[in-house]
Amino acid sequence: MIFDTDIFIWVQKGNEKAAKFVDQTEERFLSIQTYMELLQCARNKVQHKNVKEFLSSYGFIVLPFTENIGHRASIYIEEYTLSTGLRTGDAIIAATATENNMALVSSNAKHFKPIRELKLKSFKP
């Protein structure tokens, strides 16, 4: 299962439901986009280190950006940006899930719901 950035934010805010969900998931993945977003939000080197340690301690695997993911993300932007406001980061995360044939868990279902071939698991904090 691929985790959207918002799930990590819920865990950082102390949401026990999100932490339990992550803990109970056996195979944990995130897109390189999510990894970069998490590091970008860190305010200092200590927070960078905490992000990396959290991901490592839970065995998260970062999925790389590939040519196919880039192509699919660009198609999503063409199809959905004007009608739903889909942003580039979300398109990359959705494309990563789709290209790897994995479900994406997010509490921002409205960002991803229009993408028909995406296996979306909505998380309610």
TrEMBL record:
CDD domains: PIN_VapC4-5_FitB-like. The keyword Nuclease applies. Its cofactor is Mg(2+). The keyword Acetylation does not apply. Residues 1-113 form the PIN domain. It comes from the Bacteria. Gene3D superfamilies: 5'-nuclease (3.40.50.1010). Keywords: Hydrolase, Magnesium, Metal-binding, Nuclease, Toxin-antitoxin system. GO terms for molecular function: hydrolase activity; metal ion binding; nuclease activity. PANTHER family: RIBONUCLEASE VAPC2. Belongs to the PINc/VapC protein family. This is PIN domain protein. It comes from Candidatus Scalindua rubra.
